[in-house]
């Protein structure tokens, strides 16, 4: 049974405005593999905390990014939601169904896009891969054929539908993985670093596809795990930052970006007038100014946080020009994940960092 | 989303395995070709040993060639049954397919049967081809009894399924098959009556063969297929096979579910 709103079909349990995923104090530890010496000498098993008291809510229809470096706990969190790993403490519900108590109900609503291309059967055609999973999701006959055709068209693989997957490019395989996941009409999709094996152009196309076709056209709630801050900011409505198993920040993309450095700018000036910069810092217009880096033409680059966005930038350029400093360029700087984490952790205290 | 009947899911998994296997056409051709060729040396060796073996296999067809071919076919089916499931599980784990399969609303039982079904069915087809090849070379088989032999073969498969399930549980929890399948196959090969009837085994070893399901399976199969006796005449062997199957199947499913829970707790369910 499904409900329809604005042309989008929703699972009855996942309607706009309701909570798609709720995490409450979710905690998970794994035992670290011991070496032979440790086994022989009966050393105690060492526990590694993968998730620590993670609480968060993702609303239906939301594109939620989970940002964190390798080992931050993103995949563990996704595996718990996909019912592949049991949490030690806390709870996780998908459309109010508990992942531990009602895993079958959860699997009807939520689907992980397994980003590993090997999870496709390479000796089958794209259509046969789809047919297998259609059967496993209970789709048969004409319904299955129609749905498969529909999805292959959606991911632009109609022409390659009857070719063996082993001849596909990485981008085609990723699109097929998404199509395979959509067979069951899941209302919540988990995407774990879906662009990691794609070249920059394919990655951009894939991101556009995710946003336009999956989130907007299909109306899916999407949880995207990535260590690419740019990708998270481009796609997501809200972003959560995971660090060593702790959720250290959650906010709308614009809130988080502003908080951690949407106003980070790079200025190219000549001459490198430190006094002018110091004056701007003293007036509170700019802060966290990094030292000048000068190129062979004498232009010096200075990175700084700039208050007031584009208008603030215009004021700074006007001030510098007025003091006799030429400004050739002034542009926002995209933060790397490392910079972003550093800034988030600095704002949320050392406690988060040392968790 | 309808969950769908398990039989369709099992069939879909078997079909996919067949399509993948048959995409290696040369492999399929060699598989059957080697099978047919392997019957020829068996024919000559058993011919040379016929006079020696005639007395001891008198109640089981009397022809050593047919006796041995039936033994080897059944052993091959048993071997496929034991190794197909853990092998399928290992393959699915290492490629990442298992994670995708487990994320679908498919019962674990349907996945187990589906992942191993193709190998077992293929071994049955190979067995039929080998039997036909042997018959062409003169093996005396009661073809009218083929129908009666089907439930016996099914019971042989079912009685070894618990070994496969326990081995799969080991793979799931500890990423190793453990020694169980080799032990069972070794015991079945030498004490189950594959190459010679269990009556020629020394007394203390013969008592061990009473604990091996293949002993009863082969005795029943040869009586029906080579002697032409009615299936009811082997009710004792069938009863023992059913009892072994019922007892061990329940235990093995419990073990598998425990392994699944363990793998979910330690987080290695879909990791190789």
What does this structure look like?
The complex is a heterodimer of chains A (355) and B (272). Chain A has 355 residues and is an alpha+beta fold. In chain A, 37% of the residues lie in helices and 28% in strands. Chain A has 13 helices and 17 strands. In chain A, the strands form four sheets. Chain A has a six-stranded mixed β-sheet with strand order 8-9-10-5-11-12, sandwiched between helices. In chain A, strands 13, 14, 15, 16 and 17 form a five-stranded antiparallel β-sheet that branches. In chain A, α4 crosses α5 (141-154) and α4 packs parallel to α6. Chain B has ten helices and no strands. With 272 residues, chain B is mainly α. Chain B has one domain (24-266).
CATH architecture level-2 label of the largest domain in chain A: 3-Layer(aba) Sandwich
The Rg value of chain B, from CA coordinates, equals 20 Å
Termini separation of chain A comes to: 44 Å
Helical content of chain A (DSSP H or I, runs of 4+)? 25-40%
Key features of this structure:
heterodimer; A: 355 residues; alpha+beta; Rossmann fold; Alpha-Beta Plaits; 2 domains; five-stranded antiparallel sheet; 13 helices; 37% helix; disordered N terminus; disordered C terminus; B: 272 residues; mainly alpha; 0% strand
Task: Characterize this entry briefly.
The complex is a heterodimer of chains A (355) and B (272). Chain A is an alpha+beta fold.
What's the SSE blueprint?
The complex is a heterodimer of chains A (355) and B (272).
Chain A: E1 3-5, E2 8-10, E3 19-31, H1 36-40, E4 47-59, E5 63-67, H2 74-81, E6 89-94, E7 97-98, H3 103-109, E8 110-113, H4 126-136, H5 141-154, H6 170-182, E9 188-192, H7 200-217, E10 221-226, H8 229-235, E11 238-243, E12 246-252, H9 253-260, E13 264-270, H10 274-282, E14 286-287, E15 293-294, E16 300-306, H11 309-322, E17 326-332, H12 337-348, H13 350-353
Parallel strand pairs in A: 5-10, 5-11, 8-9, 9-10
Antiparallel strand pairs in A: 1-2, 3-4, 3-6, 6-7, 11-12, 13-16, 13-17, 14-16, 15-16
Chain B: H1 6-22, H2 25-53, H3 64-95, H4 97-102, H5 108-136, H6 146-174, H7 180-191, H8 203-209, H9 213-225, H10 235-266
């Amino acid at each position: 049974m499904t409900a329809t709103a604005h042309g989008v079909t929703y699972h009855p349990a996942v309607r706009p405005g309701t909570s798609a995923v709720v995490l409450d104090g979710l905690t998970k530890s794994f035992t670290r593999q011991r070496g032979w010496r440790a086994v022989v000498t009966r050393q105690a098993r060492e526990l590694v905390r993968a998730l620590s008291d993670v609480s968060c809510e993702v609303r239906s229809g939301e594109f939620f990014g989970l940002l964190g470096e390798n080992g931050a706990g993103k995949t563990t969190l996704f595996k718990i939601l996909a019912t592949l790993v049991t949490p030690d403490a806390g709870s996780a519900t998908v459309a109010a169904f508990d992942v531990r108590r009602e895993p079958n109900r959860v699997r009807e609503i939520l689907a992980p896009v397994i980003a590993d291309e090997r999870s496709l059967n390479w000796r089958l055609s794209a259509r046969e891969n789809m047919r297998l999973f259609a059967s496993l999701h209970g789709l048969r006959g004409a319904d299955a054929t129609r749905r498969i055709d529909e999805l292959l068209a959606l991911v632009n693989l109609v022409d390659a539908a009857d070719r063996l997957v082993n001849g596909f490019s990485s981008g085609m395989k990723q699109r097929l993985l998404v199509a395979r996941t959509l067979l069951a009409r899941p209302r919540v999709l988990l995407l774990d670093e879906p662009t990691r094996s794609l070249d920059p152009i394919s990655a951009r196309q894939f991101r556009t596809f995710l946003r336009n076709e999956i989130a907007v056209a299909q109306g899916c709630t999407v949880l995207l795990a990535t260590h690419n801050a740019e990708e998270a900011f481009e796609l997501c409505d809200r972003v959560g930052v995971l660090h060593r198993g702790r959720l250290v920040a959650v906010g709308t993309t614009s809130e988080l970006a502003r908080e951690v450095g949407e106003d980070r700018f790079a200025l190219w000036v000549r001459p490198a007038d430190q006094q002018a910069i110091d004056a701007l810092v003293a007036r509170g217009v700019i802060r966290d100014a990094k030292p000048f880096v000068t190129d062979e033409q004498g232009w010096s680059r200075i990175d700084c946080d700039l208050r007031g966005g584009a208008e603030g930038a215009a004021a700074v350029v006007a001030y510098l020009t007025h003091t006799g400093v030429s400004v050739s360029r002034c542009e926002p700087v995209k933060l790397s994940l490392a910079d972003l984490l550093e800034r988030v952790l600095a704002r949320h205290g050392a406690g988060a960092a040392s968790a | 989303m309808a969950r769908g009947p398990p039989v369709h899911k099992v069939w879909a998994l078997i079909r996919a395995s067949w399509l993948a296997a048959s995409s290696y056409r040369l492999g399929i051709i060699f598989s059957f070709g080697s099978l047919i060729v392997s019957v020829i040396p068996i024919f000559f060796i058993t011919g040379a040993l016929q006079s020696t073996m005639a007395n001891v296999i008198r109640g089981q067809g009397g022809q050593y060639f047919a006796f041995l071919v039936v033994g080897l076919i059944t052993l091959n089916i048993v071997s496929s049954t034991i190794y197909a499931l853990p092998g399928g599980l290992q393959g699915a784990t290492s490629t990442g397919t298992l994670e995708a399969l487990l994320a679908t609303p498919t019962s674990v039982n349907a996945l187990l049967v589906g992942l191993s079904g193709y190998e077992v069915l293929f071994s049955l087809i190979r067995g039929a081809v080998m039997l036909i090849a042997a018959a062409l070379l003169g093996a005396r088989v009661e073809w009218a009894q083929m129908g009666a032999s089907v439930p016996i073969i099914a019971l042989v498969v079912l009685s070894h399924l618990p070994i496969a399930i326990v081995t799969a549980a080991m793979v799931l929890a500890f990423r190793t098959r453990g020694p169980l399948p080799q032990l069972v196959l070794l015991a079945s090969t030498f004490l189950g009556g594959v190459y010679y009837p269990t009556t020629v085994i020394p007394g203390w070893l013969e008592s061990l063969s009473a604990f091996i399901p293949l002993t009863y399976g082969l005795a029943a199969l040869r009586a029906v297929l080579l002697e032409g006796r009615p299936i009811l005449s082997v009710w004792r062997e069938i009863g023992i096979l059913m009892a072994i199957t019922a007892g061990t199947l329940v235990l093995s499913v419990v073990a598998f579910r425990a392994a699944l829970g363990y793998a979910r707790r330690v987080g290695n369910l879909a990791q190789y």
